[in-house]
Amino acid sequence: MTGDLFLDAVIPAGQFRFSAGPRVTAQSAAAIGPYYSITQAQSIGSTVAGLPALPVYRAGGGLYSYGAGTQTEYFFNQQWATHAFVEYERLTGSAADSPLVTERGSPNQLMFGLGATYSFDVHPSW
Question: What is this structure's pTM?
Answer without folding.
Answer: 0.79
